[in-house]
Automatic annotation (TrEMBL):
It catalyses: a 1,2-diacyl-sn-glycero-3-phosphate + CTP + H(+) = a CDP-1,2-diacyl-sn-glycerol + diphosphate. The gene is TAMM41. Its EC number is 2.7.7.41. Pathway: Lipid metabolism; Phospholipid metabolism; CDP-diacylglycerol biosynthesis; CDP-diacylglycerol from sn-glycerol 3-phosphate: step 3/3. PANTHER family: PHOSPHATIDATE CYTIDYLYLTRANSFERASE, MITOCHONDRIAL. It is an enzyme of class 2 (transferase). Catalyzes the conversion of phosphatidic acid (PA) to CDP-diacylglycerol (CDP-DAG), an essential intermediate in the synthesis of phosphatidylglycerol, cardiolipin and phosphatidylinositol. This is Phosphatidate cytidylyltransferase, mitochondrial. Belongs to the TAM41 family. Keywords: Lipid biosynthesis, Lipid metabolism, Magnesium, Membrane, Mitochondrion, Mitochondrion inner membrane, Nucleotidyltransferase, Phospholipid biosynthesis, Phospholipid metabolism, Transferase. It is a peripheral membrane protein. One of its GO terms (biological process) is cardiolipin biosynthetic process. The lineage of its organism: Eukaryota, Metazoa, Chordata, Craniata, Vertebrata. It comes from Lonchura striata (white-rumped munia).
Length: 337
C-alpha cells in the first residue's frame, strides 16, 4: 500500500519542482499553501509561502548539484560547500531548509532530508519532524519505487493511529481522531508557545476531514481493535489493559523508550515489555504516551529551530520568525473577536 496521492496536483507545484535536481526518492508539498486552513481566505492560499520536502538518496551530490543550479538559495554556508552543508543537515531533525526563496512569483521554503533518515523517522519516530508532517495530508509530487520507503510511509500512518487511540477515550468521533493525530507532531514543540497559531491543529483538520479520511480510512477499516462506524463518523476502541498493551507494543521504538524512561526509576533494570505492561494498567496511560511524544518533539524542534539561524542566515531568520509571530497573533485575534 502506497501513501495516497491526493487528486488535482496543480501545475504550479510541478513547475517549482522543475527548478531542482531531479534525483528525488520523494517530494511533497504541505501546509497552508497547499490545503486551505480554517480562518484563511482563498486569496491567502494563493499568496502565502509554499512548503516542500525533498528526500534524496545521496545528500552530498544533491546539494552539490543544487548549488550549481540555485546557489543564491543558500545562506553563507554555500561558501563551505556541499559536504559541510550535509554535515549540518544531520543535526536536529536531519533536514536542511532553505527558506524565503523566490520561485515562479511565489515565496517557497524547501527542506532536504536523506532517504535513510526519513525512513528511520517514519519507522521509529526518532524526531517526529518529517514523519509528523506526513501524518497530515500532503500533496505527493514525486515518488520512486523504493519499497522500504513505501512500507515506512504506511507504518508511520499506522503508528499515528495507534498513538492517538491510546490518548482517546473508548468512544470518539472521527474528527476527534484526526485532531489527535494532527496534534502529535506539535506536542512539546516550543514554537506552539511562541511562533505558531494556538489554534493551528483545529485550523488544519476542520476544513480537511475528507483528506484525512483518504489517508486513514483503509487503516481504520483493517484495524482489528476498532469498531469503525463510517456512516456515523464514530469509532470505538478496546481500552482494556490487554488492548492497551497490544497498542503500546506496536508503538515506534523511540516512543517506547521515552515512555519507559518516564516510568522506570533510574538504576532499575527492567525490560521494555514488563514496563509497558505496567503502563497498560495505569489510568494515566494516555498521559504517559503524550509525555513521551512531547519529549521526542521538544528536543528535535529546539535544535532544528536553532539550526535555522545557520541555514537561513540571520536576516531571513528574523523575517521568517516575524511572519510566524504575525500569523500567531492574527489567529489569536480571530478566535477572540
Amino acid at each position: 500500500m502506497a501513501l495516497p496521492v491526493l487528486s488535482s496536483s496543480a501545475v504550479k507545484f510541478r513547475r517549482v519542482l522543475a527548478h531542482f535536481p531531479q534525483e528525488l526518492s520523494l517530494a511533497f508539498a504541505y501546509g497552508s499553501g497547499v490545503f486551505r486552513q480554517a480562518g484563511a481566505s482563498a486569496e491567502y492560499g494563493e499568496t502565502n509561502m509554499l512548503d516542500f520536502v525533498f528526500a534524496v538518496d545521496d545528500v552530498v551530490t544533491w546539494h552539490m548539484m543544487n548549488l550549481l543550479k540555485n546557489r543564491n538559495h543558500y545562506s553563507f554556508l554555500k561558501f563551505f560547500g556541499p559536504k559541510k552543508i550535509s554535515t549540518i543537515q544531520r543535526y536536529g531533525a536531519g533536514i536542511y531548509y532553505n527558506t524565503l526563496v523566490p520561485c515562479n512569483g511565489r515565496m517557497i521554503k524547501y527542506g532536504v532530508i536523506s532517504t535513510d533518515a526519513l525512513i528511520e523517522d517514519l519507522l521509529h519516530w526518532k524526531t517526529l519532524y518529517v514523519a509528523g508532517r506526513l501524518q497530515k495530508p500532503v500533496k505527493i509530487l514525486a515518488q520512486n519505487e523504493n519499497s522500504r520507503l513505501q512500507a515506512a510511509l504506511v507504518s508511520n500512518l499506522k503508528s499515528a493511529v495507534t498513538a492517538a487511540f491510546l490518548m482517546l477515550p473508548e468512544s470518539f468521533s472521527e474528527e476527534d481522531l484526526y485532531l489527535q493525530i494532527a496534534g502529535l507532531s506539535y506536542s512539546g514543540d516550543f514554537r506552539m508557545i511562541i511562533g505558531e497559531d494556538k489554534f493551528k491543529v483545529q485550523n488544519i483538520v476542520k476544513p480537511n476531514i475528507a483528506h484525512f479520511q483518504k489517508l486513514y480510512s483503509t487503516i481504520l477499516q483493517d484495524c482489528p481493535q476498532v469498531v469503525y462506524k463510517h456512516h456515523l463518523g464514530r469509532l470505538e476502541i478496546d481500552k482494556s489493559p490487554e488492548g492497551q498493551f497490544t497498542q503500546l507494543m506496536a508503538l515506534p521504538k523511540t516512543l517506547q523508550q521515552k515512555i519507559t524512561a518516564i516510568v522506570n526509576p533510574p538504576g532499575k533494570n527492567r525490560d521494555v515489555e514488563e514496563i509497558l505492561l505496567q503502563v497498560a494498567h495505569d489510568p494515566d496511560c494516555g498521559f504517559l504516551v503524550h509525555q513521551g511524544i512531547s519529549g521526542i518533539v521538544r528536543s528535535s524542534s529546539i535544535v532544528q529551530s536553532a539550526k535555522t539561524i545557520l541555514t537561513a542566515g540571520a536576516k531571513k531568520s528574523v523575517i521568517y520568525s516575524l511572519k510566524k509571530l504575525f500569523k500567531m497573533t492574527k489567529g489569536g485575534l480571530k478566535k477572540t473577536s
